[in-house]
Amino acid sequence: MGRHDPLSKSKPVVPVDDDVHTRIRVLSAQKNVTMKAIVREMLAVYDAHLAAQVTSTP
User: For the whole prediction, is pTM greater than 0.85?
Assistant: First the structure.
């Protein structure tokens, strides 16, 4: 409790928007969704962000 976390101030590598949180929350709320499906969704989002970063760099 109240322990200093040195990583808390660092920005996440991939900026996550509210849409991503909503999608994961919706997936998590469904009874028959496995953790694998949620992780797959998160990885798909991460891949999309990486692809966007790669194409935006000259």
Answer: no
Is residue 3 situated within a structural domain?
Answer: no
Provide the domain limits for residue 29: 18-56
15 in Cβ contact with 49 (< 8 Å): yes
8 within domain boundaries: no
Residues 6+ apart with CB under 8 A from 42: 20, 24
pLDDT tens readout for residues 39-56? 888 888 888 888 887 776
Element (H, E) at 55: helix 35-56
The whole-angstrom separation of Cα 37 and Cα 43 is 10
Distance between CA 3 and CA 27 in Å, rounded? 32
